[in-house]
Amino acid sequence: MSWIEEIDVDEADGKLATLYAELVQKRGKVSNILKVHSLNPTAMGNHLDLYMTIMFGKSGLSRAEREAIGVVVSAENECAYCVNHHAEALRRYVKDDETLEMLMTADGLETLEPRLSNIVRHAEKLTSAPSAMTESDLGELRAVGLSDSDILDLTLIVGYFNFVNRIAQGLGVQFSDEEMSGYSDD
Questions:
Q1: 115 FRET partner, CA 20 to 30 A, in 13, 24, 126, 160?
Q2: DSSP string covering 47-75, please?
Q3: Packing angle, helices 114-128 and 148-170, rounded to 10
């Protein structure tokens, strides 16, 4: 549900119907952030390809680290849809409520274990002050074991969540408890 027209799963045809069917098969349902693309199925498909590549593809970043990046970027951007959506996914990996709260508020990140702390603080800085980034910021990531490939993946995830936060906020994408839960995570 958003501020623009959307085509429901049961009303879709052609390319959109195919995309919806693939989403339901792979993920269990269609998220509202993808449904808002329903007027432009090509953009939806490209968006989904990028998401699946950076969030589920081969990487030196764990699934938990990737979700934590998404949650922190979304918290920094005050995007309730993405914070809630990805915190739900993060709960599968992080069982500590205090850690989850820090990530969901982007507060106290320096107190997390060193690798996660450096990753999410880098994501926070790249989101809030991209022009302040320096080459030395990458040294802090390398010091906790990130390769250049991992740093690229981190940067792509930060960029993706800044992009999707603006879609959610700019089009009024809403969430509900029902929409937040029940996704497959393969």
A1: 160
A2: HHHHHHHHHHSS-SS-HHHHHHHHHHHHH
A3: 50
CB atoms within 10 A of CB 134: 8
> Which domains occur in the chain, in start order?
9-57 (no CATH), 63-170 (1.20.1290.10)
Helices (H), the chain: 14-27, 32-35, 41-56, 63-76, 80-90, 97-105, 114-128, 135-143, 148-170, 177-180
d(CA 68, CA 11): 35
pLDDT digits (tens, 9 = 90+) for 104-118: 999 999 999 999 999
- Distance, in Å, from the CA atom of 140 to the CA atom of 162, rounded to the nearest integer, reads 22
Tokens of 8: 């429901």
Quick: pLDDT tens for 127-172.
Answer: 999 999 999 999 999 999 999 999 999 999 999 999 999 999 999 9
Centroid of chain to Cα 93? 15
